[in-house]
Amino acid sequence: MKKNILVITGSPRVGGNSDLMADAFVKGTKAPGHEVVKYEADRKNIRRGAIPATLASAK
């Protein structure tokens, strides 16, 4: 049975151990036909903490 798999990484070191391990996992899970998405959280602009109500209502 085909699975949808999400791999989330957070290390800022491109090509570091965590990145290489995640890539190996993605490669291994794609081989049997699973759909895999690698989400690199460290490369995203993610806000930390609460968003002020004035900003939240502006969206």
What does this structure look like?
- The relative contact order is 0.23.
- With 59 residues, the protein is an alpha+beta fold.
- It is flat, with a radius of gyration of 16 Å.
- The mean pLDDT is 85.
- It contains two helices and two strands.
- Helix content is 34%, strand content 20%.
- It has one domain (4-45).
- The chain has helices at residues 17-30, 53-58; strands at 4-9, 35-40.
- Strands 1-2 form a two-stranded parallel sheet.
Strand content: 15-25%
Number-wise, the strands total: 2
Q: How far apart are the first and last residues' alpha carbons, in Å?
A: 40 Å
- Shape estimate: flat
What's the arrangement of strands in the largest beta sheet? 1-2
- Return the string of H and E elements: EHEH
Query: What is the total domain count?
Result: 1
Spans where pLDDT lies below 50 across 5 or more residues = none
Number of helices, where a helix is a run of at least 4 consecutive DSSP H or I residues: 2
The helix content, as a percent range, equals 25-40%
Largest sheet: 2 strands, parallel
Mean pLDDT: 85
Oligomeric category: single chain
Rg, rounded, reads 16 Å
Structural class by SSE content: alpha+beta
